[in-house]
UniProtKB/TrEMBL annotation:
Domain Histidine kinase span(s) in chain numbering: 41-269
Record bears the keyword Nucleotide-binding: no
Coverage span on the entire protein: 362 to 643 of 657
This protein's name: histidine kinase
Coiled coil: none
Cellular component terms per the entry's GO annotation: membrane
Species annotation: Chamaesiphon minutus (strain ATCC 27169 / PCC 6605)
Length: 282
C-alpha cells in the first residue's frame, strides 16, 4: 500500500480510493478465512459427540444382552450427556451466527436490577446443589442503562454459569452493579457516568497467559473440571454482545483465588432509543 501511495501521490483522491479498495478486499479475505476456520472447527466439535453417541448405540445394539443393567444404564447416561453437549453446541453456534449477521437489535432502557434478579432466580437451584452461595450486591436506585434486555440477560447467564462451573463447594458468586465515573484519558475533557456490572467468583481462577485466549472461539483452559460441560463459545458470545453495547469485557483473575468479569454500560438518557445496526463482526 505504501508503494502505491508513493507512486500516485500527486492525485490524492485516487490514492485514497485505491487504498480503501485494498483495505476492503483484505478485510473480505480475512472474513472468509475466519468463516472457513469457524466452520471447520464447528464440524470437528460436532463430530466428537456424534461419534460417541453412535458408538454407544451400536454397542448397546450388539452387546446389550451381555451387559448388566448398571452397565446399560451407564451407557445410556453417557449418550444422554453427549446429546446435551450437542444441543448446547448447536445453540451456541446459532446464537453466535445470529449475533454476527446484520441482525438489528432494539436498544432501550434496561433495568439491570431486574435482569440480575432474573439471572439469580435461574441459577439459584444450581448453586444450592453445588454448595455455592449465589448473591447480589446492587446499589440502591440504580439508573437504567441503554441496551438490549435479552442480550444483557444472555451475558449475565453465561458469566454466572461459568462462575458456578469453575467454583468449588463453599465458594461464593456475587453479581454486582453500581454507578461508576470513568476518569478521562489525558486530553479528554468528557467524564462519563456509567453502570459497572461485575460477576465475582471465588473459583479456580485463570492463569494470566490464558486470560486473552479464553475469548477465542472453542478455547478452553486445560483442566479436569467438568470436561463435558461447555462449548468454549460462551465467552465469544459475551464479548460479541458487549461490543454491540460499545464497551468491552474486562477480566481480573488470580489462580486459586477467583475471577471477576466486569464491563461498563452507558446510563440511559430519556428518549434515547436506538436501532443498532451492526456491521459483520468476526
Ligand atoms: P465454556 O463453554 O468452556 O465455559 P467459555 O467460552 O464460556 O467456554 O469459557 C472458555 C474457558 O474460559 C473455560 O473453558 C474456562 O477454562 C475459562 N473460564 C471461563 N470463565 C471462568 C471462570 N469464571 N473461572 C475460571 N475459568 C473460567
Amino acid at each position: 500500500r505504501i508503494l502505491i501511495t508513493n507512486v500516485l501521490d500527486p492525485v490524492k483522491e485516487n490514492v485514497r480510493a485505491i487504498a480503501m479498495t485494498i483495505q476492503d478486499i483484505t478485510r473480505e479475505v480475512e472474513l472468509n478465512e475466519a468463516k472457513s476456520q469457524f466452520i471447520s472447527n464447528v464440524s470437528h466439535e460436532l463430530r466428537t459427540p456424534l461419534f460417541n453417541i453412535k458408538s454407544f448405540i451400536e454397542t448397546l445394539h450388539e452387546y446389550g444382552d451381555e451387559l448388566t443393567k448398571d452397565e446399560r444404564s451407564e451407557f445410556l447416561d453417557t449418550a444422554n450427556r453427549e446429546t446435551d453437549r450437542l444441543t448446547r453446541l448447536v445453540n451456541d453456534v446459532l446464537d453466535l451466527s445470529k449475533l454476527e449477521s446484520s441482525h438489528t437489535y432494539l436498544f432501550d432502557a434496561v433495568e439491570l436490577d431486574r435482569a440480575i434478579e432474573q439471572t439469580l432466580r435461574t441459577y439459584q437451584l444450581n448453586a444450592r446443589d453445588k454448595g455455592i452461595e449465589l448473591c447480589q450486591d446492587i446499589e440502591p436506585e440504580l439508573p437504567s442503562i441503554l441496551g438490549n434486555y435479552d442480550l444483557i440477560l444472555q451475558v449475565l447467564a453465561n458469566l454466572v454459569g461459568n462462575a458456578l462451573k469453575f467454583t468449588k463447594a463453599n465458594g461464593k458468586v456475587t453479581l454486582r452493579a453500581h454507578r461508576a465515573i470513568l476518569t478521562p484519558e489525558v486530553g479528554d475533557e468528557i467524564t462519563s457516568d456509567v453502570v459497572r456490572v461485575e460477576v465475582v467468583d471465588t473459583g479456580i481462577g485463570i492463569d494470566p497467559e490464558d486470560q486473552q485466549a479464553i475469548f477465542d472461539r472453542f478455547f478452553r483452559v486445560e483442566n479436569r473440571v467438568h470436561t463435558l460441560e461447555g462449548t468454549g463459545l460462551g465467552l465469544s458470545i459475551v464479548q460479541n454482545i458487549i461490543e454491540k453495547h460499545h464497551t468491552q469485557i474486562n477480566i481480573t483473575s488470580a489462580v486459586g483465588v477467583g475471577t471477576t468479569f466486569w464491563f461498563d454500560l452507558a446510563i440511559y438518557q430519556k428518549q434515547q432509543i436506538q436501532q443498532v445496526e451492526d456491521l459483520q463482526l468476526v
